[in-house]
């Protein structure tokens, strides 16, 4: 088994993935689909109709040539609607990016960010565009020391560009820890880039035998912050 990367003896910079880690985007996405479909009298009552498809289609679209995340969301919305038999006009697919301001933080997010910010520099590393992230940041009023988006690096995680850019801005990797909920988008590239990473495994996912373990695994953001010792 590959040896685990330990947390730095002195943590000076903590970065966070945003959606799924700080923001409950799955609830926001499902509510957006339910609300918009309801306008047509089409019932979507089970998140399992939407969320697994969302993750699959988003991953497929992001693996192609770069385009703004708002456009990724429009394309995902149309593909899911087609699967469900909901006749969504392409001109209305903007309901999904338009819903981003209603994606709310997890209840522990604000307090955890406050604790981290009191002792460390804090940053955001996100697969989104700057405009949509700006709308989300109204829910997390914290002065971040660094923000890296897909729009800035013109690629999507798990491509390592986000993490390379973050290391460049920090001035290296010493004292840096990343906190994230997606094994595919964040944990794997951090391990490849040798960045200590805490996996917020909210869905209790099980690793396959060939998947490397993160530096640490926790069930929520509160436990991640406790582990950081801040």
Q: Helical segment tally?
A: 10
Give the terminus-to-terminus CA distance: 30 Å
Low-confidence stretches: none
What topology, given as strand order, has the largest sheet? 3-2-1-4-5-6
Mean pLDDT: 96
The major pleated sheet works out as: 6 strands, parallel
Following the backbone from N to C, one meets helices and strands in this order, namely EHHHHHEHEHHEHEEH
Structural class: alpha/beta
Nearest-angstrom radius of gyration? 18 Å
Shape: globular
Beta-strand content: 5-15%
Q: What is the number of E strands? A: 6
Helix content: 40-55%
Describe, in plain words, how this protein is organized in 3D.
There is one protein chain. By secondary structure, the chain is of the alpha/beta class. It is 42% helix and 11% strand. It has 10 helices and 6 strands, in the order E-H-H-H-H-H-E-H-E-H-H-E-H-E-E-H. The protein has a 6-stranded parallel β-sheet, with helices on both faces. Helix 5 runs parallel beside helix 10. The longest helix has 16 residues, at 69-84. The protein is globular.
Give the secondary structure arrangement, pairings included.
Layout: E1 13-16, H1 25-38, H2 51-62, H3 69-84, H4 95-98, H5 109-119, E2 121-126, H6 130-136, E3 146-149, H7 150-153, H8 161-170, E4 176-180, H9 183-193, E5 197-200, E6 216-218, H10 221-228
Parallel strand pairs: 1-2, 1-4, 2-3, 4-5, 5-6
Helix pairs in contact: 2-3, 5-10
